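Troubleshooting: if your tokenizer reports a length mismatch, compare your output against this known-good record of 122 residues.
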Amino acid sequence: MIQRIQTVYMAGAAIVAILAVIINLDWLRMALLCASAVLAIYAIFRYKARNVQMWLNWLNIAINFTLLGIFVYRMLTTSGEGFLSEKGVGVFVPVLSIVFLFSANKAIKRDEKLVKSADRLR
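Known-good structure output:
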């Protein structure tokens, strides 16, 4: 069902990515953030296929780890104070998104166990 807690977690990851797109000016980071947001929104609507939803979240986590690496590299190589997304909040966007997606996967696993146990009782 779409009204599960994992939907809230995936929506949180999408909202964080969309807000970061507004802050960010670099085309590569903006493309990865857009891909992360679109993938999270797509995963929300794949609620009937929980395994597919989990794999989409793992792919999104990989995108966010790549994004985190890019943010850290940019933070270490740029001198002085840059934009807010360069030296400040932007680094925490992928971390927050990863936390949301891990929480969503944990909730999806819990739902999968519940469904399997209910199927055994039938």
